[in-house]
Specification:
The chain is an alpha/beta fold. Helices cover 37% and strands 22% of the residues.
């Protein structure tokens, strides 16, 4: 299956293209959707793309939780205010964060 490497300020996350395509209305989903439409992932068994994202790499794992599970549970040590700016940057709903 095709996947994409998301390099978030040096922290690399490998994600299936299909996971991001489930939400084409978001920043990452829209980008991958455009690549998909232009045939960038036509040979899905061998295609890998890397995207550099200038955001906090440690908080990004919770962004991926939303793509995978549709919800985010932030641990107490993560700043809610800082994470809200991440949600807005990636085009995710700000009500996605649930209490632990």
């Amino acid at each position: 299956m095709a996947h994409v490497v998301l390099n978030v300020c040096g922290m690399k996350y490998e994600v299936l293209v299909a996971t991001l395509l489930n939400s084409p209305e978001t920043m990452l989903g829209g980008l991958v959707d455009k690549w998909n439409e232009t045939g960038e992932f036509s040979d899905s068994s061998a295609t890998t793309r890397e995207i550099f994202i200038d955001r906090n790499g440690e908080r990004f794992q919770y962004i991926l939780d939303w793509y995978r599970d549709g919800k985010i549970v932030l641990p107490p040590h993560v700043s809610y205010e800082a994470f809200l700016s991440d949600l807005q940057f990636f085009g995710l709903p700000t009500d996605a964060v649930q209490s632990p």
